[in-house]
Amino acid sequence: MAVAVPMKTDYTAKTPAVVHTEGAKVLVVCADDGKFKMANGKVFSSGNHPVETLLPLMHFKQAGFSFEFATVSGSPVVLEMWAFPKKDAAVSAFHAEIKPLMDAPKKLDDVSSLDGYAGIFLPGGHGAMVNLPKSASLGKLLHAAHAKGLPTISLCHGDLVRLVAHQTGCVWHAPCYNLQNVLLQKRQYKRTYSLTK
Length: 197
Prior knowledge:
The chain is α/β, with parallel strands linked by helices. 35% of the residues lie in helices and 14% in strands. It has a single domain, classed as Class I glutamine amidotransferase (GATase) domain (Rossmann fold). The longest helix is centred in the last third of the chain and has 21 residues, at 176-196.
């Protein structure tokens, strides 16, 4: 699979129109379980996609935001390292800079309030489909973010975590057809990987 993965991104540093100087932080909810079991019983080595995780965080940092990571168990963030852009010096340097934070995330159960957070970021990667959509604690946080009007940003498979908000009764601001597409996408990935592995 790594053959089709670019070794370098098109990242370029940008000067944001607004730089937040008041110490606003983003809650980054990540995968801590990268074992994605397929329909045929085989296990796909997964996690959060490094580019879909790190590049947005690089831009958030330039805009003045800091980060706090959280996972279901409080175990370290798992990245799909087979997809890491190994020849991208900027991404590699940033990953090394924030790896201590990724290795010591909060447990989602321990995030009791969103006070002090500017928003929630749910990065992509197949690992978002493992245990995050079943987390009641994450469901509560998504409800709270919605009630407070806090931005919730999700990329690609990260959108699957919105399932937990739906399952716990949140009247989510995403249209219903998006939720249906997410469900179909999850089924399709299970089917595709069971055929190709």
